[in-house]
Amino acid sequence: MKTITYKEWLDTYKPRGYKEVEGGHMYDYIYDRADLDAPNDHIWTQCHSSGEGWYISSGTHWVDSLEYYVTEVPWTEDIEVV
What we know:
Layout: E1 2-4, H1 6-13, E2 19-21, E3 24-26, E4 43-49, E5 53-58, E6 65-70, E7 79-81
Parallel strand pairs: 1-7
Antiparallel strand pairs: 2-3, 4-5, 4-6, 5-7
């Protein structure tokens, strides 16, 4: 599995729904997998792992998932964003 930084993920895959908010910015996210309306290769899952904290992983995942992101650019390999 390839590992990239959050900044690399933003610059390369371009998550949809950029918003300016107090103290910074954020991106649209989806809590319910059933609400995802995009091909799987545009979907990313934010997960939480005990001892490792949060990370974003390419594709949809059920275990330890927090929310989902949809990107403009598809992923082509397994990637973890740390």
